[in-house]
Amino acid sequence: MWWLRAKLLIIYSALRRRKIDAEIDEELRFHLEMRIRENVEAGMSAEQARKEAAQRFGSMLRVQEAGREIRRGATLDGLLQDFRYALRILLKQPKFTAIVTLTMAVGIGANTSIFSVVNAVLLQPLPYERPSELALIWSSFQKMGASRAPASGVQLREIRDRSRLFEGVAGIWVGNGTFTGDAEPEQVKVAFTTPNFFSVLGAKPALGRLFLPEQDGPGINEIVLSDGLWRRRFGGDPNIIGQAVRFNSGSFTVVGIMPEEFLLSFPADANVPMDIPAWVPFQGNIYSQPKDLYYIRLLGRLQSGATIEQAQGEANDIAHELRAGFTEYNDENLQLEVVGLHRDVVRDIKPALVALFVGAGLVLLVSCFNVATLLITRASTRRKEIALRVALGATRWRVCRQLLCESLLICLLAGAFALATALLGLKLLLAIRPESLARLKTINPDWTILAFVSAISLGCGLIAGLTPVLETGRVNLVETLKEAGRTSGQVKKRFRSFLIGGEIAFGFVLLVGAGLMIRTLIQLHRVSPGFNADHVLTFEITPPGGRALQRTSFVTQFEGKLYALPGVESVGAISHLPLDDYPNWYSSYAPEGVSEEQKASFLADYRAITPGYFQALGGELISGRYFNDFDNYSGRNVVIVDRLLANQTWPGEDPIGKKLTVEQFTDRGFASGWAEVVGVVEHIKGHTLLKPLRGEIYIPYAQSAREHLSFVVRASGDLMALVGPIRGELSSLDRNRAMAKVRPMDEYVRKAMAPTHFTVVLASLFAALALLLATVGIYSVISYSVSQRTHEIGVRMALGAAGRDILRLILKEGLVLTVSGLIFGFIASVIVSEYMQSLLFDVPPVDLITYVIMAAVIFLSALLASLKPALEAASSNPIEAMRQG
Question: What backbone phi and psi angles, to 5 degrees, belong to 58?
C-alpha cells in the first residue's frame, strides 16, 4: 500500500503548500545569512560578504525553485500555478485568445459534427438484438446478369431447411394496404413477412405480441401496427390489442404495437422503407408459388460463433444443390450471396461519409497549423521575457511546461466552444440529410462524442503547443538578453513556412474536392431524367377488385373524372413511378430468332401504363405510337420499349413491328407471351439519375393490371389545390379507396439528388473554412514578417528603394509560400481524388478545370492576404522605421 501512502502525502503536501513554501524560504534565508556571517568573520566587509554569498548560492529564485521541486506534491502544485498564470496571460490578451480559440473551435466542431454522424451510421451497431449475427441473402442470376436480386418462396424454404449455420431465415416484401372502416380510408405501406421475421430480427413489441413462428401458412389474418399509426388512427388506445380492424377488404386482428423508436434497416435497393406503419403475414402460400417468382427479401440470423465467410461457403453449397435439384435455377445459374446487414445498409452512404470525415480532419489540421503559427509568433515576441525568467532561475522544462499549459488551456476553451459549434452543425446536417440518413432523426451527444471532443482537443493542444515549445527550447539566453530595443529575434522561417505551406496544401485538397462535387451536382442538373417533372402531381392508389377487368374499368373511370377537373392537361398512370422506392418489377424477355442459350442474357424492367402516361409525364416518343384505348385486354399484345433496350436488342434496326416474349401479370399470376413493339420512347431513369441500369418494356395496363398504381397528373396552376377535388372524385367512385404519397414529381427528382447535394454542401463548407483559415495564416505570417523587418525596410528605403520595390518584396514572400503549398496540394489532390471516383458523375477525378479554378482562388486569396501588410510596409516612413529597428 506504499503507493496509497505516497498519493496521500502528495495531497497533504499540496494542501499545506503555503506553509511548506514559507519553511523552505526561511531555511534558505538562514543558510544565506550564515554564509554572510562566516564571510564577515573571515575579514570581509559586509557588502563583499553578501556579494560572495549570493554568488556561492547562485540565483535565489533557482534555489527556491529547486527546493520546491524536491518536496512531494510540487509537480501538482506547479501545474496549478502554470494553469493559473496561463489563464492570466490569456485574459490580458483577449483578442489573441478569441482568435486562436475560435480557430481551433471551428476545426474541432466540424470534426465533432461529422463524427457524430459517422458514429451513429458506421460505428454504432444496428438497434437489434445481437446485430452482428444478422445477414441478408441475395440471389444472383449470372446468365441474366442480375445480382443482388430477391428470392422466391421456394428458395426461402430450401435455404431455411438446408442451412445449418443460420439460426433462422425470414422473408419480407413491402407493398400497399388500405385501412377502411368507420374512419377515413388510409393507404399505407405494409410489410408482408414470414411469421418468424420479428424473431429473426430480434425485435420486441411495446404492447401485445408479434406473429408466432409456428403459424407459417396462409389464412393468418393478424396485423402488427407501428406506434405512429396506432396513435394517429386509433388514438393510442391500448385496448385495440385483440380487436379486429378493416384492412384490404378483410378483417385483421391487432396482436401487437411496435415501440416508437423501432425502424427497419435495409439497404436502399432492397426497397424496404425504414418506417413501416403495418405488418401482416404473407396472405398466400408462398411456398407453392412459381419457383422463379423472385420478390422476397431474405434476412437470416447466424448461429452464435458462425461468421459471414462460413455462411457464404454454406450458401455456395446450397446454391449448387438448388441448381442440381431444380431446372429453373440451373437454367438461370442461380448463385447466393451472404452480406452482413450493417455492412450492406451503409454500403452506399459510406464513401460519402468517409470522404466528409477526411475533409473535416483536414480542416482540423489546417486549424492546428494556423494556431501553431499564431503561437509561434506570440512566443517569439516573448523571447526576452522567457530568457529573463530562465536567467532568474526558471528551468527550461518549467518554461516549456508553461507554454504547453497555455496551449492546452486554449484547446480546452476551444473544446467547450466546439461543442456548441457541433450542435449547430448537427442541426444543419439533420436539415439537409438525404433519405439514406433518415434514421438520424436525432443525434444526442453521449460519452463517445464527449470522449472524441476531449481526445482531439488534447491532441490539438499538444500539436499546436509543441511548436512554440520546440522553438523556445532553442533560445540563446546570452544573445537574447543582448538584444537592445528589438522586440525579438527571428523565428525560424523554414518551420513557419512549412506550417503555412501545409495550410495551403490541405486547403487546396479540400477546395478541389468541393469543386469536383459541385461540378458533379451541375452535371446532375444538366442530365435529363427522360421526362419533364414540372407541373406534375403524383399519388398512389390500390385499385379495387380482384380481377384485371375490374381494375381496368375503375382506372378508366377515374382517369375520365380527373380529365374533367379544371386546369388538368393530361392524366396517366404507371405501376412503378420513376425514382420511387416501390419494389421493382424486372424479368427476362426474348426477341425473335435468339437461341435458348441467348435468352438468359436479356433482362429488362417492366412497367404497366395507361395510354396517357407518357403525355402526362412528359416522355419523348422517338418512333411509332403511344398506347390507345384499343390496346386492351381483348386486343393483340403490344409493348413500347425505350431507346436503351431497342439499341441493345436490335442495334441498327427499326424496332417497330418486332416481336418479343414478355412477362405479363394476369388473373392467374405472371405468364409469358409474345407481344409486338408499337413504339420507342426515350429512356427514363427510373432508379437513379447517375446512370441507366436496364432498358424498360412498357405494357398496356389493360393487359397487365397490377394491384399498385401511381397516377400522374399534369396541370397548370397550384398542384396541391387539386388534391381535394381528386380525393373527392376517388371517394365518389369507391369510398374505401385512399390516396397516398401525394407529392409533385419534381420532389422525386430532388430526392434523387439529395445525397450529392448533401455532400456538396458539407464539402463546400469545409473548403470555405480551410480557405479562410489559410488566408488568415498567410496574413498573420506576412504581418509578423513585416514587423520583424521594419529596420531592414527603413534601411532599404533610405538607400533609395521605392515603395513599389518594397511592395514587390513583401508580396513575393507571400506568393512564394502559396506556390509551394499549391505544388504539394496538387500532388495530394491527385492522390485523394482517385478515391472520390464513386461520388462523381460525368466528371474525371483529375479535372483540370477544377484544379485551375481552385488554384486561382487560393492564389488570389493569398495575394489579398499579403497586400495589406505589403501596402503598410511600402508606405512607411524610413526614418521612423529605422528608429523602431
Answer: 80, -160
